[in-house]
């Protein structure tokens, strides 16, 4: 029987999730299934956007797609994030992932998608298939564990389940030069390796800012810090009092990057993991070189 490339079904997803969890979660000493970490991706409603190769009832290769609306430069592009690319151990090196990616790209082109994007520590594999590395992302690291700063009392820590999402979106529209349009279910994401995600909210004298922070035991992971820079000091004081170490995902030229570089002892390093694939003539390498997708939004 020959291999078949097709869309996943909800029944397929039940078979596929244990394989994905073992590969990306449990074998690496992590917890929480991908279904709970990315609830809008690995769910029955999105199963048709997961593509697979099957032969004689065995799933040989698979990948997940999340469709997004990308706001940048006064336009809205249709994008597709790709993640969870996997091939069975005994079938690797046979080109299944390459064929699956090519088939998926074709389906996305037909659907009118402008670009695809993924994140990888193995860029050479994707470069051979026409993907381009373009990443303005920066990874910052700083020590925490400071004494409680009075400024930290000016921050409200809120679980994502209780967050006022409309208020977050208003700040993003005002302060973010480019952004993915988020929906309520998107705020349920828990990026690896965090155990949960919290919202830190600081508002005073008409100035407001927030930080989305992943809790990884003694480490706080800042996925984005958005709003009035005058409130950033209070947010960081709270984080420093709560965590022994703080990681920051950001990009050059953002308000938060500039503030952190000028007001803290953060150590920055480039982390080029983002790869793009233009699927329409509206998108090119020069354009995407200016774009940055927050770690919180990625799959």
The low-pLDDT segments are none
> What is the CA-atom radius of gyration, in angstroms?
20 Å
Summarize the main sheet: 8 strands, mixed
Mean pLDDT: 94
The rounded distance between the terminal residues' Cα atoms is: 33 Å
- Helix and strand content put the structural class at alpha+beta
How many domains?
2
- What percent of residues adopt helix (DSSP H or I)? 10-25%
Question: Which terms summarize this structure?
Answer:
alpha+beta; Aminopeptidase; single chain; 8-stranded mixed β-sheet; 299 residues
What does this structure look like?
The chain has eight helices and 15 strands. By secondary structure, the protein is α+β, with helices and mostly antiparallel strands. The chain folds into two domains: 4-135 and 272-297, Gcn5-related N-acetyltransferase (GNAT) (Aminopeptidase, 3-Layer(aba) Sandwich), CATH 3.40.630.30; 138-270, 3-Layer(aba) Sandwich (Aminopeptidase). Strand 4 (75-87), helix 3 (96-110) and strand 5 (115-119) form a beta-alpha-beta unit. The model has no long low-confidence stretch (mean pLDDT 94).
Annotate the secondary structure layout.
Elements lengths: L3 E4 L2 H15 L9 H4 L12 E6 L2 E15 L2 E13 L8 H15 L4 E5 L3 H5 L4 E2 L3 E7 L12 E4 L5 H11 L2 E3 L15 E9 L2 E10 L2 E9 L4 H11 L2 E7 L3 H9 L3 E4 L3 E5 L6 H4 L11
Parallel strand pairs: 4-5, 12-13
Antiparallel strand pairs: 1-2, 2-3, 3-4, 3-9, 5-15, 6-15, 7-13, 7-14, 8-10, 10-11, 11-12
